[in-house]
Ferredoxin--nitrite reductase (Nostoc piscinale CENA21), 537 residues
Amino acid sequence: MTDTGTTTKTSLNKFEKFKAEKDGLAVKAEIEKFAALGWEAMDETDRDHRLKWVGVFFRPVTPGKFMMRLRMPNGILTSDQMRVLAEVLQRYGDDGSADITTRQNIQLRGIRIEDLPDIFNKFQNVGLTSVQSGMDNVRNITGDPVAGLDADELFDTRDLVQQIQDMLTNKGEGNPEFTNLPRKFNIAITGGRDNSVHAEINDLAFVPAFKEAGEQGSRGVGEEYLSQTSARKFGFNILVGGFFSAKRCDAAIPLNAWVAPEDVVAVCRAVLEVFRDNGSRANRLKSRLMWLIDEWGIDKLRAEVEQRLGKSFLPAAPKDEIDWEKRDHIGVYKQKQPGMNYVGFHIPVGRLYADDMFEIARLAEVYGSGEIRLTVEQNIIIPNISDGSLPTFLAEPLLQRFSINPGTLERSLVSCTGAQFCNFALIETKNRALATIQALEADLTFTQPVRIHWTGCPNSCGQPQVADIGLMGTKARKDGKAVEGVDIYMGGKVGKEAHLGTCAIKGIPCEDLQPVLQDILIKNFGAKLKQEALVEV
Ligand code: SRM
Ligand code: SF4
């Protein structure tokens, strides 16, 4: 390892030091002890940091009420799993809530440490895991939310995503091989045409690409696969190094490598090993994969990965198959299975309560196959609803609250956790995000969708750089005083030819934001004041 191996212990950052003293995953064996001790008596490093290796987050904003981050491979869960999550929350009354995250995942709130043994038992009974979901681990692996349903998909990502998760978590039990990365790591894999996972903002992403049989060149990953037939073959072009942080944001760049589906898990393993053993462990602000690419160059990264793989890559296919605008999946859509539909409904800023979750589980069972899916836009899809049961499903009261046809701005609103629960936050986000778009929708009419993302601080969990309008919490000044404010990002493009937006306006006090947004919506996105629209009619 570059830093752990060749630099002295004194140059390791404080996180590396506590990881070297005791691996984060070690707390898994101590859950009963922590439950008996209570959070106030626990060792602080175990409580504030190592518990994140089992997905349990101490919240300084609500001490004693922990957050639990699950893993939902490809954003898919069953009605039984959803019901267990709801049961866990139910016991906490008003403190219990859940959020769908920007990585197609679920977080629970209000969790008491004394309940953890029981909660982990419940999780195990229904095949849920929260292992390695925080700190220096690989986050939830994202895949197409309509994988296996979409008639136009090129590859169904579900099984691959599950295999990658199983490899890196030892089937949810925890895998010490990958519990001490230099920093967090994000993986996405897409087999659809619309880049539904935001491939460009992941440390490692696989995007669909066909390879012509004659193209193999030197012996490499996938050559055997290509030689099986003269027809062109499906696989993935590999992107690396995409990430957001307070210090720097970058879109992923091509590794110039193509991989057949059966080699994807091995490639993930190889890239993670290279990152684990060579990523910087000195400066935590410079530890993500892109910093290693800066140091080495892309050719050296590829060569190191090939060495771990034991074979060389075929060069990337000249073009990938991401040629659609991104879909949001809200509404009713035909599946590739005849007579079947999937229905996406909008969960405002991803916030759910136990009663909602019980009801979603019931609807998925009564009308669908019991399956529930999550999107990176923090919404829910229920698949496998037959044509015959669709009308009754659409009349269900829950769909009045979680609409299949929300307002233009509401429809694509995304928000990170913000000050309600996150101590990094510089502003409150979720409630403010909802209030702001409700006011804008009351005054304006729209001719095109506008994607607004809120994020409470420069860590960018709410991905303001992928939005049409991104709002990032900051401290602004008004009348000589520091007040809650936002920097405004513009120009983010998703789907085909995705690129990141950049900061266009700095330091708008939140209390003055409404007219500024109204102006931007009118000038840049063709919105009209309702009164003007009436006059024109
Ligand atoms: Fe994040 C840290 C919430 C997606 C970049 N993120 C945090 C923490 C854990 C900070 C903390 O301890 O309070 C936040 C927990 C707040 C809470 O109580 O909920 C937090 N991040 C979230 C979630 C829940 C936002 C949401 O409302 O959806 C998302 C959980 C995803 C998941 O299921 O795992 C979430 N975070 C992201 C994303 C978006 C993505 O992955 O597409 C990013 C930017 C992409 C990236 O990482 O490259 C992101 N979060 C960060 C960073 C900056 C990372 C860095 O390299 O500096 C931090 C701070 C850190 O890790 O030190 C952070
Ligand atoms: Fe917290 Fe900042 Fe991430 Fe929002 S962007 S969840 S405020 S760390």
About this structure: The longest strand covers residues 469-478. The chain has four domains: 9-125, 142-309, 332-405, 411-536. Residues 416-418, 422, 424-425, 455-457, 459-462 surround iron/sulfur cluster (ligand 2) (CB under 6 Å).
